[in-house]
Amino acid sequence: MKKDHKYNTDSPLGTGGGITIIGSGVIGLFSAYYLNKQGYEVTIVERSNGDDSCSMGNAGMIVPSHFIPLAVPGMIEKGIKWMFNSESPFYVKPRLNLDLLSWGLKFYQAANKKQVERAMPALRDISLLSKALYQELAQTPDFDFAFQEKGLMMLCKTEHSFEEEIEVAHQANELGLKTKVLSTKELHEYEPEVKPDVAGAIFYEGDAHLYPNQLVKNLKKHLENKGVKFLYNTEVTGFEFEKNEIKKTKITQKINNTTQHSELKTQNLIIATGSWSPLLADMLNIGLPMQAGKGYSVTYEQNQGKKLNIPSILLEARVAITPMSDNLIRFGGTMEIGGLNDEINMNRVRGIIKAVPNYFPDYQIDMPQKEKVWYGLRPCSPDGLPYIGRTNKYKNLVIASGHAMMGLSLAPATGKLVQEIIDNQNNSIDIGLYKPERYD
């Protein structure tokens, strides 16, 4: 609903009609940002207190370089091998679960050359759109989130991996992405304070990074100042329908040790709840294949005299390293498919910590205490592509989820696309591969 139309309501929460966004993660926030700019009245419903966004502790990388989806040929074999290593970068917790088995079958079906070649231009386009929107946002007053365009290093420990990554770089060049193939000596010119022990590196010139904590904080503050309503500690319990429209969203909110039940009149509903999206989709009888992939990160102060300058990925270990503002550096990684849980597996964290000196022998970091470890549940679709679009079942429902490790990187583009979908505008890019009901 545009702001020149108001609803009256007797709700104790003072809720009115308009656009309801479920989820206050970075996808929900950017959806609200672009809809608010168009004059819509927006309410964001969040099950938590808003402090545990999956984006807060991630690597902060904006990565057009990541144009290859998670589901690729050979990943199944690697996954089986890694399952027997408690410190490996990819792990599927063995369990009898029909949703997991169904997801695994779809993953296997998507992990083929034809599907990957279809996906690559789509991922490139949404990544480049997102980067352009970040560049625009970084020029906005009062929106400092330490956005830097320093590129990204893909560090290869072995000659075999280096040769494979050179082939990926050639694919990137064909897609219009600029790369440089670097020897160890050339790499040292980019990182003069450390001595990498690698076979070589690929430098992706067009990548960028930011400080996620600042971004999320500034987005929330901006939206609150613009009149976007946040309902924290609020669970969605159901919906009311009229034909093929969702008319009301039923919610339960905890306020001062009391529970209040209410309804939100809803002209358009957006599901942006990350790994929890399938639970809401189930309420609406919509199948949304997805598994939560847990990732971990730890943040330290930079070592004086041995600073890393450019974000990097330790390729074989699948560890991301991001120098951030305030002299901080973040190490993150792993993909642990283990369901919706808040357990911290310190073996996975140990795998991240141990990988760093394998690539930078003179860069040592201590194993963190458990309470210093951040984790996030990344929403993984079987084919490695997000779900973005209207549903066929309900004409006023838009789903924006399933971005896996790319949520922060793709968030502005996703938010912009959501706004265009709501406004029935032509989309900035082709979103045909992102249809939410592509598995129905």
From TrEMBL:
The chain crosses the membrane at residues 12-35. Signal peptide: none annotated. InterPro entries: FAD-dep_OxRdtase (IPR006076), FAD/NAD-bd_sf (IPR036188). Residues 19-420 form the FAD dependent oxidoreductase domain. One of its GO terms (cellular component) is cytoplasm. It comes from the Bacteria. This is Amino acid dehydrogenase. The gene is dadA.
